[in-house]
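Q: Here's a chain of 295 amino acids. Please give me its 3D structure as tokens.
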Amino acid sequence: MDIDEFRQRKVKRGYVWLKLFTDLIDEPEFMQLTDKAKAVYFEVYILAGRSDAGGLITSGDKPAKVDQLAWFLRRTTNELQGALDELQSTGLIDLQDGQITVRRFGNEQGPSAEDTRAKWREYQRESRARARGEILPDEPDADVDESDEQDSKTNEQDLKTDKQDLKTQTKSVSDTSNKSQGGVSADTISGGGLIDSDLVLSVWHDMTGLEFKPGKAFNDMVKDWQNAGVTVQNVRDAITQADGRANTPLYLAIPAKNLHTKETAQARSSDGALERFRQLYREQKQAGGDNGIHE
């Protein structure tokens, strides 16, 4: 990769976790490497994930050199160079002008972390625009044929159906929610019903595009949300506020509860203000007139 082709990263955090393909152990090219070369391969693979530059290993915002990589890995330059030469001979990495690129990284890991977050932010922007009643501009493609247009219409109809199903699911409010809020309805507070595990996973995937395999910690979190009266809208707002920092739904455990607590307090404050207004009206009426105050 030429230095002119390198695109500066926008997100320094890169990938938080990476996929490891088990069929690597069946590849003779990898299994015949020395133990040192195998270890270095996994080390540079992790650095490629942290760099988030399509497999290129970077230092700061520039491609890393071998001596910099040696410092990262706490190895001598000669020791590292020998392992890198061995990896290049098998086609696992590419060494060009002193720059190191893991060749399989892009194909194995899929879209970059920044691309995934960018799509999520665009989805959020369009969702907010539709909620405000704005009409999003169409961008027709001159190369799209009739079959592509028909597929697009079908996908759009499927999306509308999925959203309608999600709205139907969020209408119900459990008794637990009513009890936990002292009689204040969750529909009134957050505009959505109490959640369950499947619904949380659906919202998470729709809004972030990320997959998540639930476990005990996740199920415990959802139960805690149910006991607190957290709603779907609270979860959606928590994901929006995270702005790409949430890599698993577990990140939302506290923010979603905090949002629900805040909305509950606001709802009760509003109810209290209305009751004070009504009391003032009654007092004025008993005093001989409403003085222009109307209920």
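Q: Can you summarize the key feature?
A: Residues 139-144, 169-191 have pLDDT under 50 and may be disordered.
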